[in-house]
Design a protein that fits this description.
Elements (H helix, E strand, L loop, with lengths): L2 H10 L11 E6 L3 E6 L8 E5 L3 E4 L18 E2 L7 E2 L2 H10 L6 H10 L2 E3 L5 E3 L7 H18 L12 E3 L5 E3 L13 H7 L11 H15 L1 H4 L4 H14 E5 L7 E6 L7 E2 L5 E6 L2 E6 L10 E2 L12
Parallel strand pairs: 13-16
Antiparallel strand pairs: 1-2, 3-15, 4-12, 5-6, 7-8, 9-10, 11-12, 14-15
């Protein structure tokens, strides 16, 4: 599979679940945004969705393959660039190189970050670089995928241009595309899909805002080889979108320690409920969603973003 086809497969794999006989349909509300409903009556235990990831990242470096998230075992293929990433096979290493892990892109950013221990923030303070950590590394991964996508499509984004999908009107003006058919995967791009995600950026009085501003500034400065087409506010919004739309992944059902994180474009449409009617779990890098109770046609499909065993205050 060539680079263009492999990247398109990685980006659009979630769309395979959106076939005409899918038990899920997408709806939109000005108040709540996009969400998923049952397109027909669903019985408890029915499989609602098998969603492929738009992007994944292994938390446990050296234990899980950074492409397919399978256990490495006694052997692994180390990246030749010296960034510390390991793969379970030569095939995964090749696939990663064609979709996100280029030597002069993600690999170079990670390697340089490990060799530089400090950086200056917007406030002039010195902080220990957190580039190898999450959510830093996940943003780097997605920026690397955007860079590969741009190089394959020969997309040149001008300074200040948003990630929003645009169409050209008959008079030659640019008009933002406000609707995208879920079933149509032929023209889907990662940057357009990311623009559709809710970001929930913190407000001015939120104590997390200062941390977010410093982190976005750091990442914008350190990711120039792969993120030079994005402004600092765009990096900040992307960081927020990844934080609130990503799913924690586990190496197996027996594992209690998180193994990685994944971004699932269709599953991210599901809203939280303290009394959910569905649950999600991962099998390798694929996210599965099953009904836990009978769901009538037209009812919203919800999941819990936190452990249901947690008390009300924690949730």
């Amino acid at each position: 599979m060539n680079s263009s086809k492999r990247l398109k497969s990685a980006i659009c794999s979630d769309m395979t679940s959106a076939s005409l006989d899918s038990p899920l349909s997408e709806r939109f509300s000005p108040e709540y945004g996009r969400y998923l409903v049952a397109s027909h009556d669903v019985a408890a235990g029915d499989l609602l969705l098998v969603d492929g990831p738009a992007a994944t990242l292994a938390f446990r470096r050296g234990i899980l393959c950074d492409y397919c998230l399978s256990m490495l075992g006694d052997s692994g293929f180390a990246c030749s660039g010296g960034c510390g990433i390991l793969f379970c096979s030569a095939q995964c290493e090749e696939a990663a190189a064609e979709t996100f892990h280029t030597l002069d892109g993600e690999c170079d950013v990670l390697r340089l970050a490990d060799s530089n221990s400090t950086h200056s923030s917007t406030c002039g303070e010195t902080h220990k670089a957190s580039m190898p950590d999450v959510p830093d590394r996940f943003l780097i991964r997605v920026l690397a995928m955007l860079a590969v996508e741009a190089s394959l499509e020969n997309v040149q984004l001008s300074e200040g241009e948003t990630l929003a999908a645009c169409t050209t009107a008959e008079d030659g003006t640019q008009k933002r595309k406000t609707e995208q058919t879920v079933n149509d995967s032929t023209n889907v791009s990662l940057r357009h899909a990311l623009e559709e995600l809710d970001a929930h950026e913190p407000s001015h009085d939120d104590p997390q805002q200062s941390w977010l501003l410093a982190l976005a500034h750091q990442l914008h400065q350190r990711t120039q080889p792969i993120g030079h087409r994005l402004s600092e506010p765009q990096v900040r919004r992307l960081l927020c979108a990844l934080r609130c739309n990503s799913h924690t992944l586990y190496a197996s059902e027996e594992e209690e320690e998180a193994g990685g994180v994944g971004l699932y474009l269709r599953a991210s449409r599901m809203n939280h409920s303290c009394r959910p009617n569905a649950e999600f779990y991962n099998v390798a890098s694929a996210l599965h969603v099953r009904a836990v109770v009978d769901i009538p046609a037209g009812a919203e499909v919800t999941v819990s973003y936190v452990a249901l065993a947690d008390d009300l205050l924690t949730r």
